[in-house]
């Protein structure tokens, strides 16, 4: 994914997101971004069911990168990682968003 403010790489798409939302660019409007596209072969990369997960997603650079950077984490639905997990009642979370106002050097 490319940061629309300064056109540098800001992250990566999962194969499913790239196939179902190919117009996710700086030029698209927010409401247009959420119009998922459907097509032949997409289910193999989105794994909506275990049967649809036919092995194509397993061999993508995205899955290899997730597994390398986050060992044990599920890279996609029906992956063999540890999954989401649970936390005890009363657990508090802190979410921090990084929204730079200028291009990093």
Structural account:
This protein has 105 residues and is mostly helical. Helices cover 23% and strands 0% of the residues. It has one domain (1-105). It has 4 helices and no strands. The radius of gyration is 17 Å and the shape is globular. The mean pLDDT is 74. InterPro entries: Osmotin/thaumatin-like_sf.
Task: Summarize this structure briefly.
The protein is an all-alpha fold and 105 residues long.
Topology of helices and strands:
Layout: H1 15-20, H2 30-33, H3 42-46, H4 61-69
InterPro entries: Osmotin/thaumatin-like_sf (IPR037176)
Characteristics of this structure?
globular, mainly alpha, 105 residues, 0% strand, single chain, 4 helices, Osmotin/thaumatin-like_sf
Radius of gyration: 17 Å
Query: Helix and strand string, N-terminal first?
Result: HHHH
Helix content: 10-25%
Largest sheet geometry: none
* Cα distance spanning the termini: 19 Å
What portion of the residues fall into strands of 2 or more residues? under 5%
Count of DSSP-assigned helices: 4
Question: Per the principal axes of the C-alpha atoms, what is the gross shape?
Answer: globular
Query: How many extended strands?
Result: 0
Mean pLDDT: 74
The structural domain count equals 1
